[in-house]
Design a protein that fits this description.
Two copies of one chain form a homodimer. Chain A is mostly helical and about 120 residues long. Chain A is built from six helices and three strands; from the N terminus they run αααβααββα. Chain A has a three-stranded antiparallel β-sheet with strand order 1-3-2. In chain A, strand 2 and strand 3 form a beta hairpin. At the A-B interface, helix 1, helix 2, helix 3, strand 1 and helix 4 of A face helix 1, helix 2, helix 3, strand 1 and helix 4 of B.
Chain lengths: ~120, ~120
DNA sequence: CAAACATATGAATAATAGTTCATATGAAGA
DNA sequence: TCTTCATATGAACTATTATTCATATGTTTG
């Protein structure tokens, strides 16, 4: 990173200090990437709807598809993404596969998001 | 929604009840959409990095661009999105515009996400 | 073991979103 | 007022992603 890039806002000196401090406290690039990837999973209304259904109960794929009015394939693709992010887990029972929430962070994150959305 | 869609998993009866209950407790479609739109904002590493910089201090656009090694334009576009979602606010001081976090939900949501990502 | 059922998955398509480039807006100073 | 600096924004391009369709995998039952 070249120092020249910082030549902005005229008062270069002061900002250099600030930027140095900011960079120091910034998490590793990989962590930030993983974090954004996690939120990307929440950033789709189909997956959000799936999670809300799973708040209620452990549900099999075809019921999920029925509840959401979507094809089995579309739901299955999204379940795979949710599972890869460890937001849901699955359990096979005969021909069916039942999905449920993986841990409590899911609920907390969504609740906080809801609070933000519901403000004003 | 046609009842025929629910003919799956053979034991239709039981699931009908479950699905009726699930549908009842599901938030309005609009709420779910807004929620996913909010998380979509968190689901980009550029915006996550911007938010982490703002955790440290109130920063002007060109310093943000410098800190992240991005063009002023790209940062400005993302700031607009963050502002529309009310995650950041801005304040003009002469030629510069300073950005800062809008409320505490931002921090809570990101912290919970971090916890999830950092597990195992 | 063959047929039926539930789910998973690869490829293709369609829609969405981020960055770049050029330029517009808005403020400060000569 | 004209120039310069900081930021904002529209359009084009590129990349990413969700859904569909066809089909594969895995399980139960006759």
């Amino acid at each position: 990173m070249k120092k020249n890039e910082l030549e902005c806002c005229e008062s270069t000196e002061v900002h250099e200090e600030l930027l140095a401090q900011v960079r120091e406290n910034l998490p590793q690039e990989e962590k930030l990437y993983d974090l954004s990837e996690l939120f990307k999973v929440f950033g789709d209304s189909t997956r959000i709807r799936i999670l809300f259904v799973l708040f209620e109960a452990e549900v099999c794929v075809c019921d999920l598809a029925a509840a959401l009015g979507m094809t089995q394939s579309a739901v299955s693709h999204q379940l795979r993404i949710l599972k890869q992010s460890k937001l849901v887990k699955s359990r096979r029972e005969g021909k069916s596969v039942f999905y449920s929430l993986a841990d409590s962070h899911v609920r907390t994150i969504i609740d906080q998001g809801m609070e933000h959305v519901e403000e004003e």
